[in-house]
Each structure stands twice: as structure tokens, then as C-alpha cells.
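Reopening this one. Same input as before:
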Amino acid sequence: MAKKDLHVSETPATAFLKAHGVPFTGHAYDYVEHGGTAESARQLGVDEHRVVKTLVMQDQDARPLIVLMHGDRKVSTKNLARQIGAKSVEPCTPETASRHSGYLVGGTSPFGTRRAMPVYVEESILALPAIHINGGRRGYLVEIDPRACARLLGAKPVQCALQQ
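Same output, byte for byte:
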């Protein structure tokens, strides 16, 4: 059952948002292994399209990058690579993603990452009135204005969404 900010201690992501004066609302839910955005959306009663996943990927030279994508869409790595001027882009292994971000897969937030990485956001996300995005812990999303991603992270808009 969804819980609203019940005993969720501060994470690097929430500390980052607070330090930058970004208003957010925390939403805790029961994390389900491999449940993904469909499970968090179901528990919180929100549209999965507004739940944004944080994906750690890498280019052909193993340089990491973050892609913010609608929960109900996949990333076209071919379209993404073309738009960012890379030869190829692929997801990082969970271990590599965790090493770059400082978060466990399933709890990866684009805010407060261990390593600074370029961030790309599916352009249509920026048109939403609010999004739910990982707050830095499995089972915890923060609801924020999506334009905060562009402003705080320098997230560059891209068009690389595929139907899931």
C-alpha cells in the first residue's frame, strides 16, 4: 500500500533538491523487485507516463550518461546516439550504473549522483505539469516540476522514446 513520506530518511537526491530550493513531495511505496514504473504507478495511483525512470547508459567509449524517460516508454538507443553525436549508446550493467550514480538500480535518481554525468530528458516530459521520479532509494519517488531537471541538471531535451 502506498505510504506518503513514512520514515524515509534523507537521501543524496533529497538533500540536493533541498539545497537547491526545489519543492517536492515524497511518496513511499512497497518496492517490488523487477516491478519497475508500472508497479510504483499502480501503488501510488498515478499515470505511468508521468513516472520517469532514470537510466544510466554509456556511449561507445564507455562514457556514462543519464537518460530520463517516461515509465511507459523505451529508449531508442539508435535515435539517442544520433542526437547526442555518439556512434552508439547502450545501457550500463547494474554494477556499472551503481558505481557511476552511487545508487542501487531501482533506486537511481538523477539528483545527487556520485559522478557528474550529462543528462538527457525525453522532450515530452518537460511538458508535463508534474512528474514522479526516483528520490534516491528503492520504494521512494519524489513529485516535482519536470523543468527542475533541465534547470538543475542541465538536462538536454531529446526525442528518443519508443512505445513499450
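So the earlier flakiness isn't reproducible anymore. For the record, Residues 36-44 form the longest helix (9 residues).
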